[in-house]
Amino acid sequence: MTAVQPTGEPPTDLEIETLGEELPLLEGIRTTRAIRRLRPDPVPPELIRKVVEAGTFAPSGGNRQPWFFIAVTDAERRAFIADHYRRAFEMYIAPAVKAAQDPSYPDDKRRNMRAAIHLAENLHEVPVLLFVAGWMRRGQEQSQALFPAIMNVLLACRAVGLGASLTTVHRMYQLEIDDYLGLPERIPSSAMLPIGWPVGRYGKPRRKPVEQVLCYDRFNPGLISSD
Ligand SMILES: Cc1cc2nc3c(=O)[nH]c(=O)nc-3n(C[C@H](O)[C@H](O)[C@H](O)COP(=O)(O)O)c2cc1C
Q1: From ligand 1's centre to the CA of 112, what distance in Å?
Q2: Is residue 180 part of a domain?
Q3: For a pocket test of ligand 1, which of 166, 171, 193 has the largest count of ligand atoms closer than 8 A to its C-beta?
Q4: Quick one: which of 10, 46, 157, 219 is 20 to 30 A from 201 by CA?
Q5: Ligand 1 atom 11: residue of nearest CA
Q6: Contacts of 195 (CB under 8 A, 6+ apart)
């Protein structure tokens, strides 16, 4: 079976139903990476519905399904969010930018940082900013109850050929942003997934070999490395 290759071309309504259904699950998992260079072209609402529906198939404690998804597509609203994200991101990335002045800073980290900066600088042009929010429980935010759903959405984006990444730095301005989104205090946002048609392609992200992280029956301290 061949994998669906992201073409970047918007599909017709008819194509959306079958789009992404052929991609083998494990191949999709191994080739889902953060795609932060996105085109400004709109994403059809039916496709947003499809990737969010994948999110709703995630497990949750007591099957409470505490999640809500807010797909921000209005240009003015995206600009407000992008402005806050950028301010938060500048603080977050500053130490990495400083460290990257050292020529020995690893290339892959440098590429990742540049892509993250590109996203922050162009966030207002990303067609969909998908917020994932969830019910608090016993007075506590339940981010962990949302992350399986978030991962499902990221995998579904990969399957249908949309580019996406997981971000959380907007939470530095969580009160302002949640208020702007109309979220009640009991349902705070945990993550924001910028989604659009990718400029680049999906491919295997750089990861440690599994042998460096897997052991049986008892932790192997020999797995601990300096980085
Ligand atoms: C919990 C969490 C929060 C993250 N928040 C952000 C963020 O706010 N902004 C950002 O650019 N990347 C953020 N990232 C990192 C990227 O989403 C991505 O996972 C990372 O750069 C690795 O990219 P790769 O999968 O292509 O290797 C976050 C990752 C995680 C797991």
Answers
A1: 9
A2: yes
A3: 166
A4: 46
A5: 116
A6: 38, 43, 48, 51, 126, 127, 128, 129, 130, 157, 162, 163, 164
Residue-level pLDDT, tens digit, the chain, 227 residues: 333 444 556 778 778 999 999 999 999 999 999 999 999 999 999 999 999 999 999 999 999 999 999 999 999 999 999 999 999 999 999 999 999 999 999 999 999 999 999 999 999 999 999 999 999 999 999 999 999 999 999 999 999 999 999 999 999 999 999 999 999 999 999 999 999 999 988 999 999 999 999 999 999 999 998 55
Q: Residue 39 is part of a domain; what is its CATH number?
A: 3.40.109.10
In a domain, residue 8? The reply is no
Instruction: Classify the phi-psi angles of 130: left when phi > 0, otherwise alpha if psi is within -120 to 50, otherwise beta.
Output: beta
On whether residue 129 sits in a domain, the answer given is yes
Closest atom of ligand 1 to 147 CA is 1
Distance 80 CA to ligand 1 centre (A): 21
State the Cα–Cα distance between residues 152 and 181, nearest whole angstrom.
23
143 lines ligand 1 (CB under 6 A): no
Domain that holds residue 158: 19-223
Q: Whole-model pTM?
A: 0.94
Domain count, the chain: 1
Q: Whose CA is nearest to atom 16 of ligand 1?
A: 166
Nearest ligand 1 atom to alpha carbon 32: 25
